[in-house]
């Protein structure tokens, strides 16, 4: 109860609500990718390769899954820790269940591929695309996750010209910033690897020495763009105005919160100059958090696990009754 009351402060809102937005973006994307993978598996088994371009689709699914798994794992890791700290000392209690959640989740960062290694599969796939762009060939992937890279010349020529929060909080405008990020980071990553190869390094060491500040950021920006691209399709298909409105706010909050971590790149690539972009991103995030706080409990209830799975005195659906029962048991002991 105290945790939700604390959402009236900007500090608590910023600590918790972006992770709620991320949960929705990832949940919607997971439903989409699961359906794609099931159909891919069926087509592979039945040999249906007439319309779906199975080999290309398989490579794109691999590139997408190799980046969305690390992204989801890292977000979940940070979300668990932030929730634990937001609950103060109560969050550290065994009966809170947060410690068990943290321990159970820890393996997600390494199984099926250690995240920092796995995400290189995505950047390797993207690096193969750039030579085609330089040859002015059309990029057309089965899931359309990288098609926009064909327009990289036009995209990279654009600058940040937004001057108001309302203008920044237009979903298509936010998506265009991510397009620039991906194209810029792809160009810089390719040039970095090429430069390392020209210096005499092997392909292994050229990619290894280009991973930390180039290729890894490229893969992260690429999957963030695709997450938002698919979320925008879901929003456009929503028929209920109230649902569309809250989904749009979740979309914007996740997108801007993630974009905040890319601010140095926006300046490095001279996409933005002066304090405007930073000020607008920060102000927009706080504004969206304040607008979403009243919907937070309902949004959590929609995706919450049943009480017997959560197994926590802090997060039970019947709230204080469980905590009071626990305190009564302590008195008997």
UniProtKB/TrEMBL annotation:
Task: Give a yes or no for keyword Lipid metabolism in this entry.
Answer: yes
Q: Which cofactor does it need?
A: FAD
GO BP of this protein? fatty acid beta-oxidation using acyl-CoA oxidase; lipid homeostasis
Q: Which residues form the Acyl-CoA oxidase C-terminal domain?
A: 171-320
Q: Where is the Acyl-CoA oxidase C-alpha1 domain?
A: 11-127
- S-adenosyl-L-methionine is among the record's keywords: no
Any one GO CC term of the record? peroxisome
| Pathway involvement of the protein, from the record | Lipid metabolism
Q: What keywords does the record list, in alphabetical order?
A: FAD, Fatty acid metabolism, Flavoprotein, Lipid metabolism, Oxidoreductase, Peroxisome
Quote the subcellular location field of this record: Peroxisome
Matching entries from Pfam families are given as:
ACOX, ACOX_C_alpha1
Q: Which InterPro entries match?
A: ACOX_C_alpha1, Acyl-CoA_oxidase, Acyl-CoA_oxidase_C, AcylCo_DH-like_C
Under Gene Ontology molecular function, one entry of this record is: FAD binding
Highest taxon in the source lineage: Eukaryota
Regarding protein family, the annotation reads: Belongs to the acyl-CoA oxidase family.
PANTHER family reported in the protein's UniProt record: ELECTRON TRANSPORT OXIDOREDUCTASE, PEROXISOMAL ACYL-COENZYME A OXIDASE 3
Q: What's the protein here called?
A: Acyl-CoA oxidase
In its UniProt entry, the species of origin is given as Aromia moschata
Q: What is the lineage of its organism?
A: Eukaryota, Metazoa, Ecdysozoa, Arthropoda, Hexapoda
